[in-house]
Amino acid sequence: MDYTYFVFTFFVFTLVVTAIFIAKKIKSPKDKNAAAVSEKEKKLFKLYQSLEDMIAGTMEFMEESKDEITQNQDKIAKMLEKAENILMQAKNEAETINVAKEDVTKAHLQQEPKNEFKKPILISNNLGRRDQVLLLKKEGQNVKQISKVLGMSQGEVKLIIGLDK
After folding, report:
1. Cα(145)–Cα(136) distance, rounded to whole angstroms?
2. Is the dihedral of CA 132, 136, 138, 142 positive or negative?
3. What is the pLDDT of residues 140-165, one digit of tens each?
4. How far, in Å, CA of 141 to CA of 117, rounded?
């Protein structure tokens, strides 16, 4: 065998090695790019999942808040209704008091002037304040007279008489 055979073999070997080297060079950037793209896709997918979780949590919070607001609105509506009822009762009582004042004023103007205070009946110490107030009221004493006789404020007397009705 001639040395040309060895040179030719070496030449073929060099061509094969060069072809393999070039093939790897051509493939490796694609693999690196593919791996980089795949990694970016995974990160993007994780971000998307996190975003979906946050949106779901926000929606859940909004529903809970909406329920709580609805409950508070119901409570406020009930309180407003109670306040309106109390206001109506107060108006009715004020009208009743005004009518009673007018009746008393008319009756007082029609009667002859007489002593402002009637002689109170004897009040037993065994009776409670409530009973004393009601007894004097039954006798015909007015709030001012009862408050003076018992040493109570007119507001207390009015309250006791109002609660007895």
Report:
1. 9
2. negative
3. 999 999 999 888 999 999 999 988 87
4. 8
Q: In whole angstroms, give the CA distance from residue 143 to residue 136.
A: 9
pTM of the model as a whole: 0.36
Integer Cα distance of 74 and 55 in angstroms? 29
Note the residue count of the chain: 165
| DSSP letters spanning 18-79 | HHHHHHHHHHHHHHHHHHHHHHHHHHHHHHHHHHHHHHHHHHHHHHHHHHHHHHHHHHHHHH
Residues 23-76 pLDDT 10s:
887 776 555 666 777 888 889 999 989 999 999 999 999 999 999 999 999 999
Check the CA dihedral 131-134-140-146 and report its sign: positive
Beta carbons of 160 and 137 less than 8 angstroms apart? no
CB neighbour class for 160 (10 Å; exposed up to 12, middle 13-18, buried from 19): buried
